[in-house]
């Protein structure tokens, strides 16, 4: 059973009189534990594809399944619950809650999952230690560098114990050195925790680090390359 | 707990906006609570002054007297007073006679209204007999002593010690008269009263009208107005023992115009509170809506993370609740602090409005505000409910944010 399965997925947008074919008949299967990248230029359809996989958007055509379960007929609340428990998100602009500290940003997910507060520290601190964020636990996002904020976003994405992490251009706002470090950290989490990672990027240096590169252009999958590591 | 933390910290993201709205809530709450304190004080003044110089908390009357007062419609006061005073809730009993007639001096004559009362019983308890109103002489100590209004005294050209003749009808319709000597001159600050009122010992007036021991009104003061419902049936039972024509009435039945005045004050108070709260609610809604709209991307991200609609709604409502809570408490504390002073020193409205009277009853215009915890609590609860209600629309707006759109657009 694939972690992610897309069959004939299409998503169109109307922009004025023009129909934008953001995703145009994509067939894709991501196996559990893969570390894959969606590669393509800006406007190629990477973000829309990630949004569809994450249930943030609904396809106009085709079927989409997470862990073998179709999300086609799920309500908004059911999709939200699926995201909360099975999918972690990392965004290009970090999107941390500015009024919460590093610890509280990560804790927010556990709170939303309804996990008792007494268990929070036991789950959050090891992750913060692992990502080198423990000394920054009490800082607010504005007191962190871009790389640190993105690491917090990764910590937030994995604290809820998801099966899949979707990352939309996670390194777009980072310098090359920080980008490489973040990718290596994500890879380590992929290996150690068995989390499936699917991230989008247009940066060749970042894409290079992925085990599988799915090249997207004009809403279609142009190539699907697997590398042996 | 995290929702309160987020709400609290979000409020201070835009300090100026939150500060302005908090000022509005604090101001609205302060005005609502303090205005209530003032109206409460006014109602106490009005009621207290009104019932003391009128029917008392409970008044005994001939069954036809309140509708159509006639000299002969009296109650056997002396018998009643002795029984009424036995009641555990009674603090004072004032039997009174009210007789219209003519007061003549050696120089002139004027129509007047005589009030026959027991000066020793009434003492300073009757606002009209307040010693500060006595501008000359003293209260009568003999059966022939009489106190008259200052304007009446001036018109009749009489001073303390002078003789006057009171002419009226007795209970049989016969013209009767009696010589009195002016022992005191009174300024009640009510023009109509000062130009027509005379006060004489009740027994003298009762003898003059031919019904000794009687009164037109037996005003009963209770230890507290709260005791009226409990005491009324007992006093009605006492009235029943005085013959079939004597009845006991609660003050609002005996003095419907006074009850209407108090009710009108309360209604006005309610109306003003509704207006104030509505204005504050609109402000709160605007503040919350701006706050939510500014955070469209944040709400989109939170929704993308899988946080339920219920939790997002809770986030916004709690924020509104916290805003309302801080503002309400601030307003209540301000009103409480001001009340500490105005409840003792009072607010003197005499300069602004002059003296006030209604139906021959003079009211004290020094209003001592009254603190009402129950109402402060109710107004706070009302403001909290309103803050939450005002946050419903912003919360609905937040729920409509689609994560994909929020990420794409903003």
Question: Could you characterize what this model shows?
Answer:
The complex is a heterodimer of chains A (229) and B (410). With 229 residues, chain A is an alpha/beta fold. Chain A contains 7 helices and 10 strands. In chain A, helix 3 packs across helix 4 and helix 4 (120-130) crosses helix 5 (146-159). Chain A is globular and about 50 Å long. Chain B has 410 residues and is an alpha+beta fold. Chain B has helices spanning 2-11, 15-53, 77-84, 119-122, 150-156, 191-194, 202-208, 228-240, 251-254, 256-294, 296-304, 309-345, 350-353, 373-399, 403-409, and strands at residues 58-62, 90-104, 109-117, 134-137, 145-149, 163-169, 175-186, 197-201, 217-222, 246-250, 347-348, 356-358, 361-363, 366-367. In chain B, the strands form 3 sheets. In chain B, strands 2-3-8-5-7-6 form a 6-stranded mixed barrel. Chain B has a two-stranded antiparallel sheet with strand order 11-14. In chain B, a hairpin with a 2-residue loop joins strand 12 (356-358) and strand 13 (361-363). The interface between A and B is medium-sized, with 31 and 24 residues.
Offer a few descriptive terms:
heterodimer, A: six-stranded mixed β-sheet, 10 strands, 34% helix, globular, B: alpha+beta, six-stranded mixed barrel, 15 helices
């Amino acid at each position: 059973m694939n972690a992610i399965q897309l069959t004939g997925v299409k998503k169109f947008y109307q922009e004025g009189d023009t129909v934008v074919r953001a995703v145009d008949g994509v067939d894709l299967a991501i196996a559990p534990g893969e570390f894959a990248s969606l590669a393509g230029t800006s406007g190629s359809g990477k973000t829309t594809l990630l949004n569809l996989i994450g249930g943030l958007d609904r396809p106009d055509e085709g079927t989409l399944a997470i862990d073998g379960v179709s999300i086609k007929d799920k309500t908004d609340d059911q999709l939200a619950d699926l995201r909360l428990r099975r999918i972690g998100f990392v965004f290009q602009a970090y999107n941390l809650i500015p009024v919460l500290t590093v610890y509280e940003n990560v804790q927010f997910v556990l709170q939303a999952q309804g996990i008792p507060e007494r268990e929070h520290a036991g789950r959050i601190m090891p992750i913060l230690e692992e990502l080198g964020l423990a000394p920054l636990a009490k800082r607010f996002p504005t007191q962190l560098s871009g790389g640190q904020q993105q690491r917090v976003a990764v910590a937030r994405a994995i604290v809820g114990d998801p099966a899949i992490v979707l990352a939309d251009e996670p390194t777009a706002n980072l310098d090359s050195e920080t980008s490489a470090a973040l990718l290596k950290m994500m890879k380590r989490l992929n290996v150690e925790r068995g989390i499936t990672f699917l991230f989008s990027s247009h940066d060749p240096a970042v894409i290079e680090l992925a085990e599988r590169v799915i090249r997207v252009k004009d809403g279609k999958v142009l190539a699907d390359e697997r590398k042996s590591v | 707990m995290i929702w309160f933390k987020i709400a609290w910290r979000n409020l201070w993201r835009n300090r100026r906006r939150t500060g302005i709205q908090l000022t509005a809530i604090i101001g609205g709450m302060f005005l609502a609570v303090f205005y209530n304190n003032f109206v409460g004080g006014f109602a106490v003044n009005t009621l207290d002054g009104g019932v003391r110089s009128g029917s008392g908390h409970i008044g005994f009357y001939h069954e036809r007297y309140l509708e159509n007062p006639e000299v002969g419609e009296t109650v056997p006061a002396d018998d009643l007073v002795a029984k009424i005073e036995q009641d555990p809730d009674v603090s004072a009993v004032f039997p009174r006679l009210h007789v219209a007639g003519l007061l003549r001096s050696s120089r002139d004559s004027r129509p007047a209204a005589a009030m026959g009362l027991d000066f020793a019983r009434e003492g300073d308890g009757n606002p009209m007999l307040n010693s500060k109103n006595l501008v000359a002489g003293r209260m009568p100590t003999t059966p022939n002593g009489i106190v008259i209004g200052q304007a009446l005294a001036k018109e009749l050209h009489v001073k303390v010690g002078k003789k006057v003749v009171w002419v009226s009808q007795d209970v049989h319709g016969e013209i009767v008269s009696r010589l009195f000597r002016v022992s005191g001159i009174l300024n009640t600050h009510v023009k109509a009263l000062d130009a027509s009122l005379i006060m004489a010992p009740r027994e003298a007036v009762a003898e003059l009208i031919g019904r000794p021991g009687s009164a037109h009104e037996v005003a009963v003061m209770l230890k507290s107005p709260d005791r009226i419902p409990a005491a009324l049936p007992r006093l009605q039972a006492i009235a029943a023992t005085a013959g079939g024509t004597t009845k006991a009435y609660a003050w609002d039945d005996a003095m419907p115009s006074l009850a209407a005045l108090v009710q009108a004050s309360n209604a006005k108070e309610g109306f003003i509170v509704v207006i104030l709260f509505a204005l504050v609610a609109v402000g709160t809604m605007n503040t919350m809506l701006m706050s939510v709209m500014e955070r469209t991307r944040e709400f989109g991200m939170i929704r993308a993370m899988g946080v339920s609609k219920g939790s997002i709604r809770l986030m916004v409502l709690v924020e509104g609740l916290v805003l309302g809570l801080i503002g309400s408490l601030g307003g209540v504390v301000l009103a409480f602090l001001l009340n500490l002073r105005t409840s003792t020193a009072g607010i003197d409205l005499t300069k602004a409005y002059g003296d006030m009277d209604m139906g021959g009853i003079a009211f004290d215009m020094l209003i001592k505000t009254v603190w009402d915890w129950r109402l402060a609590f109710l107004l706070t609860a009302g403001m909290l409910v309103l803050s939450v209600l005002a946050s419903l629309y912003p919360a609905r707006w937040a729920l409509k944010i689609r994560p994909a759109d929020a990420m794409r657009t903003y």
